[in-house]
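Just wondering, does anyone understand what follows?

——
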Amino acid sequence: MSYGFKVMVEGDYACFTRPEMKAERVSYDVPPPGALEGLLKGVYWKPAIRYVIDKIIVFNPIDFISVRRNEVENKISLQKMKSQMRRKGGDPVIYTSEERSQRSAMILKNVKYGIEFHFELTNLKNEQESGEGEKKNYNIIKRRLERGQCFRMPCLGCSEFPIKRIQLVDDFNLQEIDSRIIQMGDVDLGFMSYKVCFEDQGIPKNGDWSNPRFSDKATTAYYRPHMINGVIEVEKYKEVMKC
């Protein structure tokens, strides 16, 4: 915990899809910890570290908007892409006019979250890398957050909803929490997704870090948090996490 961070994140829209409503997307009221871990991985990540969300603070009112979106049903085949790169043929193309479908979605708008997190070492690393300590990773994460650097655009649930701002802060100003959130008091958010746990636990199933192949098999872990005056103590409620 000595290497913790606090960041403020804002966005125009967000969609943290409830798994029980995947046909027509409906967002959770607040972000699941797993979605925020994915957001942070866009800033910096490697197999040697694992992010842990400790606290989520909801600053803006929870407002929904209904939209209709075009979604592509399939992904480009990685095998076909590799085959063409090796000049062995293959057609790594998706014709969106044939693959797309229009779906409605209930998404969040004008979101602003405070995220308190730390990272832990996993002892997993590419064999070509030397051992790295906590301090080195801490300095890299801190530098990237201060400079606004990222490997891929951090997003709020879906890639169509990128963050508008991410800022490293020393502490959160709880006076900025909207009065409508404060008036909600203690809110039982019910069972919601904590994160998706992959069977391979981040270790390539072929044992080859230079050309890793990961398992798609995964289970979802759930927890039942409360939001009290806009603050979700993730660390407290994950103690009764269920799979």
User: Anything to note?
Assistant: Helices lie at 33-41, 78-85, 96-99, 134-147, 179-184, 234-237. The chain has a mean pLDDT of 87. The longest helix spans residues 134-147. DSSP finds six helices and 13 strands in the chain.
